[in-house]
Amino acid sequence: MNIPSPIQNVLTTLKSAGFEAFVVGGSVRDMLRGASPKDWDVTTSARPEDIQKLFPEHVYENTFGTVSVKTGSEDPTLALVEVTPYRVEGTYSDRRHPDAVSFAQTLEEDLSRRDFTINAIALGDDGAIIDPFEGQKDIRDGTIRTVGDPRGRFGEDALRILRAARLSAELGYGIEPETLAAMRELGPTLEAISVERIRDEFTKIIASPRAYEGVVFLQETDLLRYIIPELLEGVGVSQNLHHIYTVWEHNARALKYATEQNYSLIVRLACLLHDVGKPRTKRGEGTHSTFYGHDVVGGRMAKAILLRLKYSKDIVERVTTLVRYHLFYYNVGEVTESSVRRLLAKVGKENMDDLLRVREGDRIGSGTPKAVPYKLRHLKYMIDKVSSDPISVKMLAINGETLMQELGMQPGPRMGLVLNGLLADVLDTPAHNTKEQLLALAKEYGEMPLDSLRTHLAKIEAAREAEEAERMKKYYVSAAEPVAKLPQKKV
Known about the structure:
Number of domains: 3
Strand content: 5-15%
Number of helices: 22
CATH architecture of the largest domain: Orthogonal Bundle
Oligomer: single chain
Number of strands: 11
Shape: flat
CATH topology of the largest domain: cca-adding enzyme, domain 2
Radius of gyration: 31 Å
Distance between the termini: 51 Å
Structural class: alpha+beta
């Protein structure tokens, strides 16, 4: 395991001053797994004042003794290293913060206070590994286990319960039985944790490669109750003939698809919440039950959930929009360009791609084998079409008013043909689309016979047809648009 030179320099500086120093925590865990650490932590026998003297370029703004040392590295993962004295922690009367922190004398004391065995491994600058709690074995076995008694460890800081679930989702590790039992038992203590800390751990689960397994684990252990209890309303709630899964399973599987496609956090949250309103709008039972208005109700619920978890304004607004409009109707041959423009106006062009991604997750979460059927491809084509500037004289750097002012040209058929002639020239040579060049060319065209100018119209029409053909090819749609004979459900 090669320690990067900026971290090695920190260790060397501390040791040269007579102190012990080791890389510790997640950075060692990741190196042992063969992964690249996202950040680096160093533990040392030095005290905060010693660390600050040795590293003048630092930040020290906490009560736990941690000094953030600036290394000068251009690599953002190495630019700031957290250097913390050996320490032990007192009781956690609020289940969130230690009542007191005192500095320890040995590395073993410091490692004994850490949360999980895989995070309680230290690495010296000489490559020596100190592993008093068999964290290396747990890494090899893919197991998350607390350091010491799990009830005591979770009792100190209840957030560690969610951290265990998050590490399981991020690393794909199982959770040791006693640790798991303590998580189930002490789940209610999460009520003492701030929503911001809960939100951050939940976000990391949703953003992980195993987000689906992570949220299913939260549901099965009843930990989801302390994050988004509204999702539990869908557990066991059957749907109609268009679905083969319960509402909860459907939402979770939509998230799974978004994760497999490596979609953004916005899309993942929207997929998970897109049908959160269904249980409250269900009417009837069996294959013909209905959920009228669940998109509207779900949009309100999603907004309340995200505000409660104190997500950013941007995330709240975008996810709410995606949930509210995920049920948009589109049927080839029935929906007009104007209706597509209205959808764009409601959703926002910047959200349209994400809305289509949510619809893909909705389809796969329903048990449909194809995420992007012809209808969705045709909608993408229509969105592109109505969003693109048409090939027209409006693309030119000058207009009729310019021709009147600069050349004294009068309104009428000739002016229209001159402008079309300029457009045909610009289609061939886009660099000609400047006021100076177009005016010079317009003066020449102004003296040409009308029949000669009309030849440009065919070139423009050919360009429009070529553009349309290329757009159809891009989205794999055909010129013939089948008109549905019967009303169709959402795609």
